[in-house]
Structures are given as structure tokens and as C-alpha cells.
Amino acid sequence: MSSIKPIKKYPVPNVVYVDVDGTLLINNRVNHPLVAWVRDQHSEGKQIVVWSARGVGAAIMAVDVCGIRDIVSHTLSKPGYVVDDLGKRFTQYMEIIHVNEIDGRKNSIIHKRKIR
């Protein structure tokens, strides 16, 4: 049996989506290392979007609490449904990063891995 991986048709978009609860805010406290990392990503030319399963209001509140309104292009609710011709495979065009991989330092694991 072949283990050939499918070739990605498109590059990973230059957009970073950041979740609110348990990510940007942990126990209602600002995740400062993540905020620093997000600022680094923005300075490298990435568009920043903040979303929340609790809706757009929670995303806006988190952006204001974290003081990142100046770098966030969109605040929105996490989607309840995704309609895509790839189904669940649509994630092949993105890199999923766990919040624990980010510590805000330039030499952190995520910076060593270097997202595009």
C-alpha cells in the first residue's frame, strides 16, 4: 500500500486565527506570551483574526482586554458549521498550533518550527 501524501493545491494562508477561551485568555487572564507571539506574527505580515465559540462579543472583549485592537483585522464567532468541498479535510491548508507550543520567545518551539 502506498503512503503517498496528497499534494497541497494551495499554500497555507498568511492568516492566524486565535481562539479566546483557554487560549488568548486563560482563566479570564491575559495570556501574555501568546499576545507577544501574535504581535510577532503580525509584524511578519500575517493577518490576525480573533474568534470565540461564545460569539463575536466575546472576541471583541478579549481583543480589548489584551490590548491588541491595533493588530486584529477581524473579530468573529467560531463557525458552527463549515461548508467545503473537502469536508473535514479542509484543514490540510492550515497548521493547527496548540497554545502550549507558544511561549512568546523568539526561540520557542513555534519559532523554531517557523510557520509560513
Automatic annotation (TrEMBL):
InterPro entries: HAD-like_sf (IPR036412). It comes from the Bacteria. This is Uncharacterized protein. It comes from Methylomonas subterranea.
